[in-house]
Amino acid sequence: MNFLKELAGRFLFHEGPSKSAELAYFFLLSLFPFMIFLITLVGYLPVQQEDIIAVFKQYAPKGTMPVINETLNTGNRGLLSFGIIAALWSASNGIGAIVGAFNHAYEVKENRSFLMIRLTSLLLTVAMVITILIALLLPVFGRAIGDFIASIDGTPAMFLTAWSALRWIISPLILFIVFTALYFFAPNERLSFKFVFPGACAATIGWILVSILFSYYVSEIANYSATYGSLGGIIVLMIWFYLSGMMIIIGGEINALLHKNSAHRAS
Predict the structure, then answer these.
(1) pLDDT tens per residue across span 186-221
(2) Distances (CA, A) of 153 to 73, 140, 147, 253
(3) How many domains in the chain?
């Protein structure tokens, strides 16, 4: 109970709500060029556009999908180089905001150069892109493995059933890997992985639960389209990003608090 009380105090003291709003802004800026970039890559990878939509549909609130679909259908997919630049630059700005929030959580000053911070943000962004692409390709590989097993003994049903169940585990695992990398590399503090895993686990579980609950709230209770009209999807998207940013920052605060308590016990 004392830990939770101190965690809540640190979250408010370190301006967690305003930092979450900042992350939501950068998430919104980076989402659409990033998705257009992924759709552009579809022509070079054995992935269908529906596979990319399905990844977002797992957790994205129902009211946001029309906005996302419209952007993907109207975006210029021929500008692959522009898509790379826009996605990486916008997303790295979001990572840069996360770096600042984590430094605030650990109460350390940023003494790395602007070039080092930007390079770290870009590398983390590229790592996220690669991780998401792997997540998109896994179903393709699963079907290929199932077809290969079918060609051998003609009984792929058991494997395909197991693979479908495994996909529910793979998605949280991908999230956990992304959060672990963020919590380890983003702050200007030397950390061991034992002080990274708790926050990554909390952020993964918290983000999934918040996304599911908020999606249910939007679908069954609230009617943002009736209130805001065509802007309803954007409003829902921003609230979802705000809650997502909050989960990421809380995970960072958990790691920072554990690190602080460990340092006090060692001194």
Answers:
(1) 888 888 888 899 999 999 999 989 988 888 887 777
(2) 41, 20, 10, 52
(3) 1
